[in-house]
C-alpha cells in the first residue's frame, strides 16, 4: 500500500470514471478507526480514500487541544507512516465538509502548509480537500470555490465542492429535506463556467440527487440517480457545441498548465465524452445497492461512508460489552477480568467489525480487487 501522489490520485479518479466504479471514502476519528479502514481496504484489495471531518480533525487533536489543523497534520503524518507498511494498494487522504465558518481556521491553513511543502519539493500532506458551500447561494459558493481551486492547484491537491444541499445532519451541520436536495443540469453548466474543465485545477463535484446524511427509514428520502446522468449529458452536449468555451475572466491571465505540473492540476484530458464531471456521492448510508450502482454508472468516483462504519465500529464494542459485561465491570465487589476490559480486546473486535463494512462498501462500489498496482 502506498500513499497516493498527486499523479497517482489523478490516475485513480480517472480509472474509476472510465471503469464505472467508485472508491469508498471512509471517515475516521481515531487511530483505531484509521486502522480499521486500512484493514478493510487491504482485505478487499481496493484502493481507497480515508478522510477526516472538521469535528474528526478536532477530536484527533485531543479534548484539551481541540485544534483541527494540528489534528489534521498529526493524522496525515501518522496515516502516511502506517500506509507505507502495507503493500499492493493506494490510499488517498482527504478533508471532508469544510463549511464557510471553518475555512480560515482549517482548510486555508492546510492549503498554505501544503503549498510550502510543494515549494520545498515535497508532496502535500493531503491529496484533496472539500469545500462545502452548499448553504450559500450558488454564485457565492462558486466564487469561493474558484479561489480555493487556485490554491489547490498550487498545492497539487484536488478540490471537492458540493452543489445543492445534502439533507440530514453531518458533523453538527444540518440541512432540511426539501427541494434543495436536487441539483439541476443548469447547475452543472454554472460549475463549468466558474471552474473550467480542469485547466484551472482539478476538482470533483457532489451534486445532490435526494441523498441525505445519517440513517433514515425507507420512504423518507427519494433518490433520483438519473439526475446525475442528466447533469453529465447536458453539460457534455454544451461543451461539444462550444457553449461553454472557457476564455479567461476579464483581467485574468490564461491558466495553461505548466510543463512540470502534476496531472492533478491539468485539464481533464481523456474524460469520457458523456462524463465531464468527477462526481461524489454524499449521504449514501442505507441506500439500496441498485441505486448506488446506478449513480456510479453516471460518473460517481467517490462515495462517502461514515454513518454505517460508525455503527459497525460501535456495534463491535457493544457486542463485547454485552457479552462480557461481568468481566468488563467490577460487579458486586468482584475484580472483573483484565483481559476483557483491556481496550485492545474490545478495540480489535470494533476494528474487525468496521473493516468488514469497508469491504462491503468496496464490493458495492465495484472497487474490490481492482487496485492499481
UniProtKB/TrEMBL annotation:
Root EC class: lyase
Pfam family, one: F_bP_aldolase
Pathway info: Carbohydrate degradation; glycolysis; D-glyceraldehyde 3-phosphate and glycerone phosphate from D-glucose: step 4/4
InterPro entries reported for this sequence: Aldolase_TIM (IPR013785), FBA_II (IPR000771), Fruct_bisP_bact (IPR006411)
Swiss-Prot/TrEMBL cofactor(s): Zn(2+)
Record keywords: Glycolysis, Lyase, Metal-binding, Zinc
Keyword Repressor: no
Catalytic activity: beta-D-fructose 1,6-bisphosphate = D-glyceraldehyde 3-phosphate + dihydroxyacetone phosphate
Sequence segments annotated as region (Disordered): 243-269
This enzyme's EC code(s): 4.1.2.13
Family, similarity comment: Belongs to the class II fructose-bisphosphate aldolase family.
Chain's role: Catalyzes the aldol condensation of dihydroxyacetone phosphate (DHAP or glycerone-phosphate) with glyceraldehyde 3-phosphate (G3P) to form fructose 1,6-bisphosphate (FBP) in gluconeogenesis and the reverse reaction in glycolysis.
NCBIfam families recorded: cbbA, PRK09197.1
Protein name listed in UniProt: Fructose-bisphosphate aldolase
Source organism phylogeny: Bacteria, Bacillati, Actinomycetota, Actinomycetes, Bifidobacteriales
Gene designation: fba
Amino acid at each position: 500500500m502506498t500513499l497516493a501522489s498527486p499523479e497517482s490520485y489523478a490516475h485513480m479518479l480517472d480509472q474509476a470514471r472510465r471503469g464505472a466504479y467508485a472508491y469508498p471514502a471512509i471517515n475516521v476519528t481515531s487511530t483505531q478507526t484509521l486502522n480499521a479502514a486500512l484493514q478493510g481496504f487491504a482485505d478487499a484489495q481496493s484502493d481507497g480514500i480515508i478522510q477526516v471531518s472538521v469535528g474528526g480533525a478536532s477530536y484527533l487533536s485531543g479534548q484539551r487541544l481541540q485544534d483541527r489543523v494540528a489534528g489534521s497534520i498529526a493524522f496525515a503524518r501518522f496515516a502516511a507512516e502506517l500506509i507505507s507498511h502495507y503493500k499492493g494498494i493506494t490510499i488517498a487522504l482527504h478533508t471532508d465538509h469544510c463549511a464557510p465558518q471553518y475555512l480560515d481556521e482549517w482548510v486555508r491553513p492546510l492549503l498554505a502548509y501544503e503549498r510550502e511543502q510543494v515549494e520545498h519539493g515535497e508532496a502535500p500532506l493531503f491529496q484533496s480537500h472539500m469545500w462545502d458551500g452548499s448553504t450559500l447561494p450558488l454564485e457565492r459558493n462558486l466564487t469561493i470555490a474558484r479561489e480555493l481551486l487556485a490554491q489547490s492547484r498550487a498545492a497539487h491537491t484536488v478540490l471537492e465542492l458540493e452543489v445543492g444541499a445534502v439533507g440530514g445532519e453531518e458533523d453538527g451541520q444540518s440541512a432540511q429535506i426539501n427541494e434543495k436536495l436536487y441539483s439541476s443540469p443548469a447547475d452543472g453548466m454554472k460549475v463549468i463556467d466558474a471552474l473550467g474543465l480542469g485547466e484551472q485545477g482539478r476538482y470533483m463535484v457532489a451534486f445532490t440527487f435526494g441523498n441525505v446524511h445519517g440513517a433514515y427509514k425507507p420512504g423518507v428520502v427519494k433518490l433520483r440517480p438519473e439526475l446525475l446522468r442528466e447533469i453529465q449529458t447536458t453539460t457534455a452536449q454544451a461543451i461539444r457545441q462550444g457553449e461553454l468555451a472557457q476564455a479567461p475572466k476579464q483581467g485574468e491571465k490564461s491558466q495553461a498548465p505548466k510543463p512540470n505540473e502534476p496531472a492533478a492540476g491539468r485539464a481533464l484530458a481523456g474524460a469520457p465524452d458523456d462524463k465531464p464531471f468527477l462526481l461524489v456521492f454524499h449521504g449514501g448510508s442505507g441506500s439500496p445497492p441498485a441505486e448506488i450502482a446506478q449513480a456510479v454508472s453516471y460518473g460517481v468516483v467517490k462515495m462517502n461512508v461514515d454513518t454505517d462504519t460508525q455503527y459497525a465500529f460501535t456495534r463491535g464494542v457493544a457486542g463485547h460489552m454485552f457479552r462480557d459485561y461481568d468481566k468488563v465491570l467490577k460487579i458486586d465487589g468482584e475484580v472483573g477480568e483484565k483481559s476483557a476490559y483491556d481496550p485492545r480486546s474490545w478495540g480489535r473486535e470494533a476494528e474487525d467489525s468496521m473493516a468488514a463494512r469497508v469491504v462491503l462498501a468496496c464490493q458495492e462500489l465495484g472497487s474490490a480487487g481492482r487496485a492499481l498496482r
